[in-house]
Amino acid sequence: MLVISTGFAFAQEPFVSVQTDDKNYDEGDTIVISGKVQTVVGGTPVTLQILTSGNLVDIAQITVAQDGTYSHTILAEGPLWNNAGEYLIRVLYGDGNMAETKFNYTPESGAVETTTNFEVDAGSHGTFDVEYTIKGGTVKNMIVDSDIFALIVQVDSTDEGVITLDLPREFIGAEKQDGKDDTFIILIDGIEVAYQESVVHADSRVITINFEQGDSDIEIIGTYVVPEFGTIVMMVLLVGIMATIILTRTKFQIKI
Strand 24-26 to strand 97-106: parallel, antiparallel, or no bridges (unpaired)? Predict the structure, then answer.
């Protein structure tokens, strides 16, 4: 008689879990902490602790819902939120049940903000400078794309951040037919995003763009980029269209 024994191994879920809505926070951000307990013990709250370098930054007791879930928000600011680096979230529930997760935090004093000029290659037109301020990353390159009348800003975004660019009108702009300012189209890695324009000068436009960690290519698309590129391309296009119309009319007259 042959006896076959079959065993099944199941992964056991932790008694209590914890997670955050992000892994990187700056001073003033809201941290959303959530999790679940497998068995609800009536009237027992989840005890939450936030620590850095062994020092307690925040503590709270959180009510657990009937389905075992819990959620809590904390504003990352105050006298104990001074140190940049890794922070630990520890939750305790019942007798000896614990879970942990980590996140990175940057106070305002630790956020690096860089203001400088970038020399952009404009081909046979030479070069031009774009002044910029960036926080949350660094600028790797700025490239003129004459095909789409764009300036492409390549960034290394190590965190959520913001970049402000002072765009010289002589080399890039967005204008209506009457010469008045039009809106730029801003794409980040191919996705259109909003931007803010706070300062308008006679010789430049200052725009501010927010980006996320991991973003790389910021395309600023206008109606011209470097007069030598944009204006001439448009003129050639118009001449081509007019020539096509004239030839079409001539052929039509010959057929008649």
Answer: parallel
Query: Which are the contacts of 51, defined by CB distance < 8 A and separation ≥ 6?
Result: 57, 87, 88, 90
| Cα–Cα nearest to 60, from 72, 76, 43 | 72
The ranges assigned to domains in the chain are: 19-108, 112-233
Residue 223 near residue 234, CB atoms below 8 Å: no
- The answer to whether the CB of 44 falls within 8 A of the CB of 63 is no
Task: Kindly give, in sequence order, each residue whose CB lies less than 8 Å from that of residue 38, ignoring residues fewer than 6 positions away.
Answer: 13, 14, 15, 16, 68
% of the chain exceeding 70 in pLDDT = 82
Residue 33 CB neighbours (<10 A): 22
Which CATH code for domain 19-108?
2.60.40.1930
Angle (CA) 164-167-171 rounded to 5° is 155
Per DSSP, helices labelled H in the chain are 227-255
Q: Dump pLDDT digits (tens) for 235-247.
A: 554 555 565 555 5
